[in-house]
Amino acid sequence: MRILLKVGITAVALWAATALVTGISLGDQTTGRRVLTLVAVAVIFGLVNAVLKPIIKTLGCAFYVLTLGLIGLVVNALLLWLTSEVAQRFDLPFEVDGFWPAFWGAIVVGVVGWLLHLFIPDDDDDD
């Protein structure tokens, strides 16, 4: 159940990025198709992050330390851009038009996702 909630939060965060960042688009679709596209892209984004981000953080640990974590913004942008490429291979109309839209989109996705996660109670409640 919790994973569905996380996918939903990621889908809303991706929608916010498409609404706020020029260069990130969903194409011309009906509302129902947009929702399905956002959910599918959220799943792809989650898988890309789950598989690649730990590897990148491990291999690039020194860069994270040297840049005080700012390289994480670049890594998140590249992962969002990669998600766009994977989505297009699955014929999903989610498109990121370059690095800078991916950079700003990753910031929007991160902030909106963080804000929405504030409203989810932790699983480790001592009832």
What Rg do the Cα atoms give?
15 Å
Helix content: over 70%
Tell me the span between the first and last alpha carbons. 19 Å
**Number of H- or I-type helical stretches:** 5
* Run of helices and strands: HEHHHEH
Q: Tell me the β content.
A: under 5%
Overall 3D form: globular
Taking pLDDT < 50 over at least 5 consecutive residues as the criterion, the unreliable ranges are none
Q: In total, how many beta strands?
A: 2
Spatial strand order of the main sheet: 1-2
Largest sheet: 2 strands, antiparallel
Keywords: Membrane, Transmembrane, Transmembrane helix
Pfam families: Phage_holin_4_2
Transmembrane segments: 35-52, 59-82, 102-120
Protein name: Phage holin family protein
